[in-house]
Amino acid sequence: MAEVVLGVGTNKGLFLGRGHGGKWEFSGPRFPMQAVYAIGIDTRRAVPRLLVGADSSHWGPSVFRSDDLGSTWHEPQRPAVKFPRDTDASLERVWQLKPAGAEAPDVVYAGTEPGALFRSEDGGETFSLVRALWEHPQREQWAAGFGGQAVHTVVTDPRDADAVTIAVSTGGVYRTLDGGKSWAPFNTGVQTTFLPERYPQFGQCVHKVAQDSEDPDRLFLQNHGGVYRSDNAGRSWTSIAEGLPADFGFPVATHPRRGGVAYVFPLQADSDRFPAGKHCRVYRTEDAGKSWQKLSAGLPASEHYGAVLRDALCLDDNDPAGVYFGNRNGEVYASADDGDSWQLIASHLPDVLCVRAAVTS
Questions:
Q1: Which is nearest to 31 in space by CA: 353, 258, 275?
Q2: Up-side HSE of residue 94: CA atoms within 13 Å toward CB?
Q3: Looking at residue 11, what is its pLDDT?
Q4: How far is C-alpha 177 from the geometric centre of its chain's CA atoms?
Q5: pLDDT at res. 1
Q6: Is residue 149 within 8 Å of 141, Cβ to Cβ?
Q7: Which InterPro entries has this protein been placed in (predicted)?
Q8: What is the overall mean pLDDT for the chain?
Q9: Alpha-carbon span 169 to 206, nearest angstrom
Q10: Residues 239, 251: Cα–Cα separation, whole Å
Q11: How far is residue 83's CA from residue 210's CA, in Å, rounded to a whole number?
Q12: How far apart are the C-alpha atoms of 230 and 302, rounded to whole Å?
């Protein structure tokens, strides 16, 4: 069975898990006392490159990289992600590190707070601001979500290196078809519950977007109230929340090989953000949102209060796929069978902010 590396970003450093045959060993923390909101694993290399966005209250935010699965780390002498002086902005946090696909070798995207997108063409060593998004006339009207204003999702198109979709809180979904030279809002059908206009052109508080593995035009979206699917690359969205115990939540993730299969972790209300019904449950659809199945085997049966954040649910490329999530209780759960059953693989960690997994052998 293949070995899996699992990066777990917490508000006090990075923990790395190595899993094989259902047994796990964890090491860390790396970058202690730094909040790790972003992990990227670049599997286009013989040995996957690990990319980490970490925040230091003393030194500020930075991007670190490792080419030996976390044994050693490199930080560039100059900040990898930095706003140009003329923008009159400074980096608060790196929220997303997304290696592009094989269609764009060595390209890595970084989503940041304040809401901006950066692009690297050297595997994540240096990044440049995507000016057209930063200078978009609607950007100045983006508000800050509860966690801040951030580009937190980047979706690339395996058919076209120039097609990129991003999501920002609180601005909504935007898409470029010309490599970032121009951007348009793609929010038709996604509602807001906190603005006078229910279906504005932009301003939605989108929490996460995930792309279908078989049909790149099919996207799944977890909103601040609402779960949606698009069958036309985000040009329009349809609600698929029926059958879920709640339509509020943060993450959504898709299966690496099975089209129409997606996973969410519902929270019961915007007011308290506890798991729906105060039960630790993942929900899976196998028919693109027409129906949902509760996945609970091996998860706690008692009342549970650990919310799962937007990047704290992911899958690996194993067959069957491994599914992983971490929560704000400092627990990490893993499934080796597409989510049918679960085991607790780490506990008593700091608040889990993000998880990323990759098969390494």
A1: 353
A2: 33
A3: 96
A4: 22
A5: 61
A6: no
A7: WD40/YVTN_repeat-like_dom_sf (IPR015943), Xyloglucanase_GH74 (IPR052025)
A8: 95
A9: 6
A10: 16
A11: 27
A12: 35
* Alpha-carbon distances of 258 from 39, 115, 208, 262, 349, rounded to whole Å: 24, 32, 20, 9, 32
Distance, CA of 10 to CA of 12 (rounded, Å):
5
Which structure tokens are listed for 181? 């030279």
Q: What angle do CA 108, 208, 300 make, to 5 degrees?
A: 115
CA distance 201 to 349: 40
- Within 8 A by CB and 6+ apart from 133, the residues are 116, 117, 139, 151, 166, 174, 176, 180, 183
Closest CA to 20 of 344, 339, 359: 359
User: b vs e for 249-259, b when ≥16 Cβ sit within 10 Å of the residue's Cβ?
Assistant: bbbbbbbeeee
- Predicted pLDDT at 148: 86
Number of Cβ within 10 Å of residue 271's Cβ equals 7
Distance CA 285, CA 217 (A): 18
Contacts of 304 (CB under 8 A, 6+ apart): 275, 278, 279, 280, 329
Q: Is the bond preceding residue 192 a cis peptide, omega within 30 degrees?
A: no
185 forms beta bridges with: 174
For 136-192, write each residue's pLDDT tens digit.
Answer: 999 999 988 788 899 999 999 999 999 999 999 989 999 999 999 999 999 999 999
Residue 109 CB coordination number (10 Å): 25
Nearest-angstrom CA–CA distance, 163 and 8: 29
User: What whole-number distance in Å separates Cα of residue 184 and Cα of residue 176?
Assistant: 7
Q: How many whole angstroms separate alpha carbon 135 and alpha carbon 116? A: 10
Please tell me the pTM assigned to this model.
Answer: 0.97
pLDDT score, position 328: 96
Q: Which residues pair with 282 in a beta bridge?
A: 295
